Amino acid sequence: MKDKSTTIYLGPQHPGITGNMMIKLQVEGDTIVKATTHVGYLHRAFEKLMERRNWLQSFTILCRMCVPEPDPNEENYARAVEIIEGREVPERAKYIRVLVLEMARLASLLLWYAGQAGSAGLYTMGQWSVGDRNYVLDLFEELTGARIYHMFIWPGGVRRDLPEGFKGRAIKVMDYLEKRWKDYDRLLFDNSIFQKRAQGIGVIDPSMAREWGVVGAPLRGCGIKSDVRIDEPYEVYDKLDFIVPDMYKDGDVWSRALVRRFEFLQTIRIIRQVLDDMPEGPVFNKIPNPHKWVLPKGDALVKTETVRGESSFYVVSDGTNKPRRIHLKGPAYIHGITLLENLLVGQNLSDVSFIMNSLGTCPPEMER
User: Which end of the chain is more exposed for a tag (fewer CB within 10 A), N or C?
Assistant: First the structure.
């Protein structure tokens, strides 16, 4: 009997792919029987590139590990260096770091809404959310001088203090986004098309979620409460009041969408607290001349909660002016390969991009 399956290549240049990657699909009719992820079409070899630069030069590379949300990589690396060296961080700098991380979360979530809605054919949502994301990027540009690659969180603190009047402008953006949420609900979450497409699709078995290494919204969408900001607090997260959702338990695209909807509003809540509670004081514990800066021998493992889930850095120093070893363990590797390849089997061809967007994949983070 002849093989009835057909091989289809989705990506690397395709509007439904989350970055430059490709999925090799074997289908029978329009049902997927096998899926294989291929990466390496964009940035790669970050870890080795960083091992050939001094401790500060590596920051130009860190951002490229995940373009939609680069700041957690800066946070991980900076904290690892601080642990190895024993460098203290001023209290005000810790608050500013959390502000930057949560602003990055907002910008990344708005971009996710665009991809998830676009995969269901609801392109107006993408135009709205990407447009609204620009207001957050405006704040980043004012604070850091850049809209995407900020290189703002450095060992010892942050590069500069908040500009005069920044708090008022940031609150104005938060007010706008909270009001805008009613429009998002009407257009996306209350939309019967989106609900029918999302419910019961790409279901993650809660009993397998931990075994597969699932983190972030895909894990919380199974009803499992897990968040590094709560489980292993860093910076000033232990001083902030926010809720990690565990009330959505179906493990499908719909549950993951509701988790991100809830987290968007919680992120605004965190930003408001940070702006209100931020103390006065210095924002940077000055480092030596970067070209002569030598760290003692040692290593450090640090974790940060990104919008995609738990991300960790392992950094090793051999007592020179360069890292001996840098290793990133990001959620995109598990979600975009192990999890995605399993979830796509038995699904309809039209749901590939829909499921992929719900997992939060970032190809450069896979081929790092």
Answer: N
Do the Cβ atoms of 263 and 181 come closer than 8 Å? no
What does CATH list as the number for 44-343+350-366?
Answer: 1.10.645.10
Per-residue pLDDT tens digits for 29-49: 999 999 999 887 777 788 889
What tens digit of pLDDT does each residue of 286-301 get? 888 988 899 999 999 9
| Greatest pairwise CA separation for the chain in angstroms | 76
Per residue in 135-168, pLDDT tens?
A: 999 999 999 999 988 989 999 999 999 999 999 9
Reference 195, options 122, 249, 290; nearest CA is 122
Q: For the chain, what are the domain ranges?
A: 44-343+350-366
Q: Which residues contact 92 (CB under 8 A, 6 or more apart)?
A: 161, 278, 279, 280, 281, 282, 283
Q: Helix (H, G, I), strand (E, B), or coil: what is residue 221?
A: coil
Instruction: Report which of 305, 367, 306, 366 is spatially closest to residue 332, judged by C-alpha positions.
Output: 366
pTM over 0.90: yes
